[in-house]
Amino acid sequence: MTTDKQAKEKIEDLGKELVKEVLANKPPILNVPVRALSNIVFNKQKEALELGNKISERNFFNVAHAKKFLQTLEVAAKSKDLLALGKHASLRDVFYMIKRTIPNTKTNIVDEQSESDNAIEDLELLTNLSREQLNINANKMGSVAGQVVIEDKGDEIDWSKMGSGGWSIPSNVEEIKFKKVKAKYVIYMEKAAVWERLHEDKFWEKQNCIIMSSQGQTTRGIRRLLQRLSQEHNLPIYVLADFDPWGFYIYSVLKFGSINLAHMSGSMTLSTARFLGITADDIEKYGLKKQLIAFKDVDMTRLKQLQNYEWFKHSKDWQRQFKMMQTMNAKAEIQALSSRGISFITEKYLPEKIKNEDFLM
Q1: Which amino acids are annotated catalytic?
Q2: How many C-alpha atoms does 356 have within 13 Å on its Cβ side?
Q3: How far apart are CA 209 and CA 145, in angstroms?
Q4: What CATH number does the domain located at 143-355 have?
């Protein structure tokens, strides 16, 4: 595990290299790997997205590069300060910490948070450190419950005794120590409302599992926590998402990684992930056709993009799902199962699917 001191030294090394270039009368340059689809490679053996070899040169004396160059150095300076103090800041904090007007100009270092967020990701690539190792955290956006006891910053926390809201998953889960893990598998769901149904029905207790959720796309903390449970405790990960291109994409990101985080695929991807549902077959089997929602143009466009992803292109099972969805020209939410009864999902749907190993890989 990288210490604050080691992380601080890596940032200092980056700065020293730039100083060397200046003292040698050379333009200071940052060589940042390109974070775009054009530089993404699918590693079939690892079943994960990885960054290719394309590099974007940021030359401080190039007007087109100067602002991004400055943004990256500003973020590096703030991260170095945080590491020296042993304190953490949120993404929003960092945005405001570097947001100011450059002296004698009318130009701001950053105008939108997306700029500082991108600079942080560039710094990750330049230092080979994660955002969390740079002491920069995102907001907490997930909940978990189960028969698990952890130690976090010296506090012992029992996930089975956290009330109706469950334990709030932090951005950085690297220092968490697992004291006790009693579970056969983990179910991750994209919707907090569905998690609340499973939690109220004590699904995690009755089925001896862990239930975890976010609100939409998964955070880094959640992805890393899922990976740790999978690798350190040999737990299969089941994904429960809407029957639509966006739900399928959430699964894709969990299992294979994402374009923006291809440089961190080693600590983010989940080779054990299995897609439980909702599937096209579930629509037929459980009589959910009346609960379908008609496609919009944007849905069909996204579906066609998924069909052509290399990691889906050669899968007969996934191509079959895509074609069935295309034929239906419609989508369905997880909550459509509530039409069969408020606890249908916990009493019949999930136990039946898991027992029959009815999932997609």
Answers
A1: 96
A2: 10
A3: 9
A4: 3.40.1360.10
